[in-house]
Amino acid sequence: xxxxxxxxxxxxxxxxxxxxxxxxxxxxxxxxxxxxxxxxxxxxxxxxxxxxxxxxxxxxxxxxxxxxxxxxxxxxxxxxxxxxxxxxxxxxxxxxxxxxxxxxxxxxxxxxxxxxxxxxxxxxxxxxxxxxxxxxxxxxxxxxxxxxxxxxxxxxxxxxxxxxxxxxxxxxxxxxxxxxxxxxxxxxxxxxxxxxxxxxxxxxxxxxxxxxxxxxxxxxxxxxxxxxxxxxxxxxxxxxxxxxxxxxxxxxxxxxxxxxxxxxxxxxxxxxxxxxxxxxxxxxxxxxxxxxxxxxxxxxxxxxxxxxxxxxxxxxxxxxxxxxxxxxxxxxxxxxxxxxxxxxxxxxxxxxxxxxxxxxxxxxxxxxxxxxxxxxxxxxxxxxxxxxxxxxxxxxxxxxxxxxxxxx
Length: 408
Description:
This protein is of the alpha+beta class. The chain has helices spanning 18-26, 40-45, 64-72, 85-95, 100-107, 111-120, 134-147, 178-182, 234-237, 240-253, 287-295, 299-307, 313-319, 350-353, 391-401; strands at 10-14, 31-35, 50-52, 74-79, 128-131, 159-163, 173-175, 191-195, 200-209, 212-223, 227-230, 258-267, 273-279, 330-335, 358-361, 383-388.
């Protein structure tokens, strides 16, 4: 997949991910990893070109990263996780001499900003506001339920609270009452508050090059933060033309030229497609791995190829398969969360192990038997991977084992 221009300069991978490093290495494309200092010894032992950098540190020396990468002959920065998105934007703005690239990266990091931009573009969004203190959340919860004509004694419709610039479900809280608001830590402010949207939630992984979507995957969520599969079921895939319209609108209005975007949407019971949010990095839920299992191409490689303005049309056409029809089956992941405070052992049911859809799991007994306190959706303690031909059987498996006590 290499072209003559790409072979001359380095691609900088911002963050640390062995699957990404291995995938890009197979592209036979020169690269440098920019990662936290603790990964430098491993990089040296394995002959991985490495630049040590602490992304959380913003100061007057931040420009030194560009200078280091420029001296190495770097032409492109690709973000691996959420906290490196604006770093990639800042670097690419200088590599490509286009300051708007940095501004677009900020848009994709700030949940309040992206909601306003989507609304201006004519996309359907829920009611939302930014909160700077707990009193703002109390007022928002009250106003939303007043608008829904709730009276004393009625159960509140929930609202959702999310830190403005955190990834995925990190810090995501569902607020039903005043006691839920009191539990929000002060460090989560400022945050985004939004009304609850009913309906089928799903995500898209759109690989964009030169402002055009080159491959669109739809990931069906069985339960947000717990389980999903690729490609979506036939009942959700029927919506692909409408979904593609929303993606094209998003790409045009956010002026996205290169890379991958990971937007989330809801389809309400009346058929309205509501915009949730959008990210510009590798999605959670092992979605890139599921895409590779279902379609046979590396989504990590696809992100790099689509991020590079020098990638040719011929390379893209040769790389991406046909959407949906080329999928070999449905690939799914179920993320496991302990429901105990102290882990004694791991149990895995024989009937699941012998199911033809079961492929593998990476659950483990942690070094500390005490389960970390769960905030929002928390951190899962391993994943079960499935693959099969029937999306409904995939869904049934995930629902059946979502509350199974693998950790006891």
